[in-house]
Design goal:
The protein is an alpha/beta fold. The chain contains 6 helices and 11 strands. The protein folds into 2 domains: about 120 residues, NAD(P)-binding Rossmann-like Domain (Rossmann fold, 3-Layer(aba) Sandwich); about 80 residues, Alpha-Beta Plaits (2-Layer Sandwich).
């Protein structure tokens, strides 16, 4: 996959490094050449100096052949303009913009533009760590409405079947790790002592999941 990353700050540089490590063709754009030092000497992608929403700069970065673009600068306006140019002008198939203001993120999501609000996600994550200490949130889906939660099987779930803990539309068991091997359970799969579970949980259903885990 050919990916363009606009903004070589902390998020952009880490994203670029991970994508290159995963075997993707990555080009990083930043207005400051000094920012590229964050990529390190071993970075195998390309770098382009310039303003991310400048069409000529994007063309130099290969936007006409890009499969995806991530706008990760420190400015919401820059990220939104870059994302809209990439999507509306160059028809890049996958475009994501990082936004700091969660209120603006909601507006642009309603307009069909994919956004990631680090502020909103960070607030939710802190709340989860403070209020749901037994539940380890390992990822989110959509705008954070659904979370992937990891936990150890409670003692009173042992020998019970998966279908006994599923709450339709709220809680589902997506995988079980048992003796170092991970598999997707069926409704009749019985939990065993020491199982580690990954569950898909609607964000508003944390308390219901905790109640299920606490019930005897």
């Amino acid at each position: 996959m050919k990916v363009i990353i606009v903004g070589c700050g902390r998020m952009g540089s880490e994203l670029a490094g991970q994508l290159v490590q995963d075997g993707h063709d990555v080009t990083v754009v930043d207005k400051s050449p000094l920012a590229f030092y964050r990529l390190g000497e071993k970075f195998r992608g390309k770098t382009i100096e310039g303003i991310g929403f400048d069409r000529n700069v994007l063309v130099r970065a290969g936007v006409e052949r890009a499969d995806a673009l991530a706008a990760t600068t420190s400015g919401d306006n820059t990220n939104i303009i870059t994302a809209r140019v990439a999507r509306n002008v160059f028809r890049v198939p996958k475009v994501v913009a990082r936004l700091y203001d969660p209120r603006r993120a909601e507006i642009y999501q309603r307009l069909g533009l994919q956004t990631v609000s680090s502020t909103a996600w960070g607030v939710r994550r802190v709340i989860q760590l403070l209020a749901h200490r037994e539940l380890n949130v390992i990822g989110t889906l959509g705008g954070g409405e659904v979370e992937l939660v990891e936990c150890e099987v409670p003692p009173h779930w042992v020998s019970r079947a998966v279908n006994h803990v599923i709450v339709p539309g709220e809680i589902n068991v997506t995988s079980v790790t048992r003796q170092g091997k991970t598999f997707i359970p069926i409704l009749g799969t019985e939990f065993q002592d020491g199982d580690r579970l990954t569950l898909a949980v609607v964000a508003s259903s944390h308390e219901r999941l905790e109640d299920l885990m606490a019930m005897r």
